[in-house]
Amino acid sequence: MLTLAIHQKNLVMNATTTTKQYNTVLSQAKKGVPGFALAYGKFIEKVTIGQNSKSLIVNYSRSLAYIALHFSRPPQLVSVEEINAYLYSMMVHERCSVTYFKHAVFALRYWFRLFDMEDKAIQMPPVKKEKKLPTVLSRQECKVLFKAPVNLKHRFLLAFAYAGGLRMNELRMIKISDVDVHREQIHIRHGKGRKQRCVGLSKLLVKKLPFYLSEIKPAVYLFEGLTPGQPMGQRSIQYIISEALQKTAIQKAVSMHTLRHSFATHLLEDGVDIHTIQHLLGHADLIQTLVYLHVAQVKTKPAHSPLDTLYDFVKL
To answer: Which of 63, 273, 309, 314 is deepest in the core (most CB within 10 A)?
Structure first.
């Protein structure tokens, strides 16, 4: 339990630390590396027009700033050989994370193409996708987790995230007006890649929603922070699930995204087809959804000839 508590606490602390590091390293690069500030302005203009996500901008910017500081010149003036040596050193000697390596490579590809250096972009090393199965909570563990918080808003938030299979940012940006009780639907307006979709609203939550609204009295967003009319922050949501976990005996490393994984897995176990689950999750590619086949406990049926079922010779 102590190890898990430390892990969950670190999730919240790391978010704060990451933001400070991003601001510091970017500021240093813009001030200390000749030509970087001007080139970075072009980068920001491009990602803003392209409506890229905030997380992409932060991750790419941090990686590019580190590279600029390391070589004391903007990345477009660094040779492919120098960059490969840098990435090798970061992986072997600095023991940087796989995530940092991926962000650095993707950022450099984007940067080089921005400056019409396609030859450099295609020479960047390949990034292999890590084949890691998602962590999934059992149905009983979900019930224990949802019951753990004392605060009504916290209980409702965790159950709501699981019930709709929502990403954290989708959850925090849901307005009261996005919840259609009569049609039992939730309109997701801030999906990944700025894509919108509708997901079903749990019948249990339809019943509980009026009480939640009367007790919590949110102004605009379903889950608001200390400022009325403003959505709850990501760190606050991370804290909610972290605090709830510490009150349970769950030993798994759980995040808000684990509730989304559990949603998809439990639907698959309930017999919902994979294409429907893909739509509910907002996955652009079915391959993203197929991973749940590896963790779902689905009972298989013995093979048979369809001719037998055609004439009711075999009952399934």
So the answer is: 63
Tokens (6 digits) for 138: 């059992």
Is 260 catalytic? The answer is yes
pLDDT tens digits, residue range 135-191?
999 999 999 999 999 999 999 999 999 999 999 999 999 999 999 999 999 999 988
Q: How many CA atoms lie within 13 A of 207 on its CB side?
A: 3
CATH entry, 139-294, from 1.10.443.10, 3.90.420.10, 3.40.30.10, 3.90.1150.10? 1.10.443.10
Residue type, 294: H
Concatenated DSSP letters of 276-297 = HHHHHHT-SSHHHHHGGGGT--
CA distances from 99 to 72, 90, 128, 205 (A): 24, 12, 11, 37
- Known catalytic residue: 292? yes
Instruction: Give CA–CA dist 269/296, Å, rounded.
Output: 6
pTM assigned to the model: 0.70
Question: Is there a catalytic annotation at residue 167?
Answer: yes
Which among 154, 260, 261, 266 is annotated as catalytic?
260
For residues 160 and 150, the answer to whether their CB atoms sit within 8 Å is no
